[in-house]
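Quarterly update from the structural biology core.
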Amino acid sequence: MVTPNIATASPSYSVDDDERPRSPRVGASLLLFAAFVVIAAGLHAPMFSDRIFNADEAYLATQAQVLVDGGHLYVDTVDRKPPVVPYLYAAVFKVTGSDALAPVRVLAVLAEAFTAWLLAVEARRRLRWRHASVCAGVGFLLVASALPAADAQAANFEVFMLPVMTAALVLGVRDRPAAAGATLGIATLTKQTAAFALVPLAYLAWRARRWSGLARLSVAFVAPIAVAAVVFGPHDFLFWVFTGNGSYADVHGVLGYAIGLGARETGWFLFGAAAMVVLLPFAWRRRRDDTDLWLWLGSGVVAVAVGLRFFPHYYLQLIPPLTLLAVRGLDSLSTTVRARALAIVTVLAVVPAAYFLVPAFVDGNTKDTTIALDVAHYISRHTSAGQRVLVWGQAPEVYWASARRPATRFATTGFVTGTSGGRPPSHVGSRYAVPGAASDFYADLRRTPPVLIADMSTADQRHASFYPPAHFPEFQRFLDRGGWHRVAVVDGVAILRPGAR
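Predicted structure, tokenized:
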């Protein structure tokens, strides 16, 4: 990650010298970061349990296990995601000698604290109000925790994308287009939607240097992505990260469902971010000073809406620009009015955070996760290390918790069945599958056949009853030819073994 040189940065906004706060001393800056770490740890204390908050964590952990064993991303394990976070998980597993999620979650807490610190640094540079930096950092942490536990308490892609993306904007504001572009390129290799932040960065580069700034920004942005394409192979990398996402963005036949989902999830986000949203009209008064922030927010809205999936953790991308605009709104108020407004927005920030945080402390694993973990326990007891297994369904927890590798490169069968989140459970079938996934799936089964298959459709785990094997003739033929038959039932899940009965 490129760290901004705050000490030598030149201001971009017209604030009188006697009103502009001086750059904080190193000790004070470190103390502020430490305070943000403590607050972030408190708001994310549920993460340090053994609860599985999000299947994405289990998918990433399964990929990391394959990578630690010497596998190659986009060949031996695949997902429609960039490479940074799978390798981050793998590095943590390698260093700790364990595939526990707690160390990765510690890094997620540090990533949120670092994002808060970057926002505090930018708020201090941009605004004349001396408490702006503290309000920015604490406000970000509170609103980022005001999401369902599956989204706020998981070490997901957005959590690791935010500090890198925010650092890119901090650099862009300081007229360092090349560093900003390279940093945003790395953020895009963490989660693709970070690329939408090119809009405010392009504005900043054009304002400062015209075509020269845009050229530096563009070349530097493409450079890390081009390097990744060379390292992983252009075809596989580009397909899984960019060009192979057509089916994911397809809304044919489900537009009404997607719009309804978007309205509901946006409503919940506005509830969680109410403290910031109510301040936007006051920030609008100074919009000419913050054109880059409004462009950042607008481009983030587009990023959230791409694909019309509306997972709550997608909205995390909106919080950094919202944070700075909200603090600008407070800064625009008189001292007396600001004190009253700050009391109101504090309540509006704390109440939603508590609303989502309390259940995260007291709730356990969901029924679907419990089923997956019980199946993992059975598989770990009835197979040996090195043997492959297959889960027909959306339960990557089985692979991770059993420490058994998938028989295919896919940690879920959604790439073949077409099932995925953000769509009705009945929206399945080969026509929604990732192009070419079925060929890879069956080739893998022939090359590394499983010793057990867990058919999640018999338990309707994560709506798997909508895609039983019988609905996919090629897979059913594979079962018939191998003489696969039921040898056990775990929480309603049929465990299959090949050969004669």
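Strands lie at 388-392, 405-406, 452-455, 485-490, 493-497.
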